[in-house]
Amino acid sequence: MRFGEVLLLTSRLSPRDAARAFAEAGVPVFPCIAGGKRPLTLTGFHDATAEPGVVAEWWSAWPNANLAVPTGARSGLEVVDVDVKDERSGFDAFSVAQAAGILDGEYARVRTPSGGIHVYFPSAIDRPQRCWQSATAHIDFRGDGGYVVVPPSCISIDTGRATYRLSSLSSGEPHPVDATALRSLIDPNSVRPRRDAAQASPSAALPGTVDRQRLAAWVAQLREGERNHGLFWAACRLAEAGLTAVTIEDALGAAASRAGLADDEIAITIRSAQRHVSRSSAAQGVWQECPVLATRISESSCRR
């Protein structure tokens, strides 16, 4: 069974059964909080697996958990996320990209609880594409370093609960989307010329999976009175390496939640960190010393 075939079944499956079906199809999954998007595991999408035994253990522990799938090379799936928030939406920009032929080759569409859509594409093995977001176009791209919540998960909203549900499944031959071309079209001011290796930030390649996991573990054990400061510092380190706010939240959000921070506090702190980095010398790749939060934080775990 393939990913699309599992999507077709989700309307009559519980999240627990859907998680098992995705895993059996070879699609790695991981649990998120019931009614939300926050991962339940310490390092979020890094923990995703298609191992049936692990998946069964997760949903035995959290039977009402939502389920999510990592995007990019981990799953072979990339997603164009058309957002709807308040009176703003990404559908105008999406229509422009469709007319330009950039979005030909979609695999499936999923209607999101906000009224937006997730448009799925296969990923290109030889062309990894990172996550990015366009606040002006109200479109996000989820590739390497990201994840999406998938059907039949439900999200708690002001009027009750809303479900992720399959909207359409393409009968054509799917092919990868050019995320750079899409971003250049819908948000040209956000695309900067690429720098060569000599010009690149010395920290650009630093926070790989191991470093993110270390930062997440550190954030998770922060105590009251140091949590916001600690999350801000960790988010700055990832922002210095060029990660987007979406990717930073994917990497640190679950850990910050475990430390006791609310979702809105986490989002605000991460956005503040990214703005701070863009205005400071840290944007040039200079790692700063960790904040002196407590003596139990070792120097080796907080410095470059």
Describe this protein's structure:
- This protein has 2 domains: 3-190, Prim-pol fold (2-Layer Sandwich), CATH 3.30.2250; 209-302.
- It has 10 helices and 13 strands.
- It has helices at 3-9, 15-24, 52-61, 91-99, 179-186, 209-220, 227-240, 245-259, 263-279, 299-302, and strands spanning 30-32, 66-70, 77-82, 84-85, 88-89, 108-111, 117-122, 132-134, 139-142, 147-149, 154-157, 160-163, 165-169.
- The chain has a 6-stranded antiparallel β-sheet with strand order 8-9-3-7-6-13, with helices on both faces. A 3-stranded antiparallel β-sheet has the order 1-2-10. Strands 4-5 form a two-stranded antiparallel sheet.
- The model is unreliable at 193-210 and 281-304 (pLDDT under 50).
Break the fold down into its secondary structure elements and pairings.
Blueprint: H1 3-9, H2 15-24, E1 30-32, H3 52-61, E2 66-70, E3 77-82, E4 84-85, E5 88-89, H4 91-99, E6 108-111, E7 117-122, E8 132-134, E9 139-142, E10 147-149, E11 154-157, E12 160-163, E13 165-169, H5 179-186, H6 209-220, H7 227-240, H8 245-259, H9 263-279, H10 299-302
Helix pairs in contact: 2-3, 6-7, 6-8, 7-8, 7-9, 8-9
Pfam family, one: Prim-Pol
InterPro entries: DNA_primase/pol_bifunc_N, PriCT_1
Protein name: DNA primase
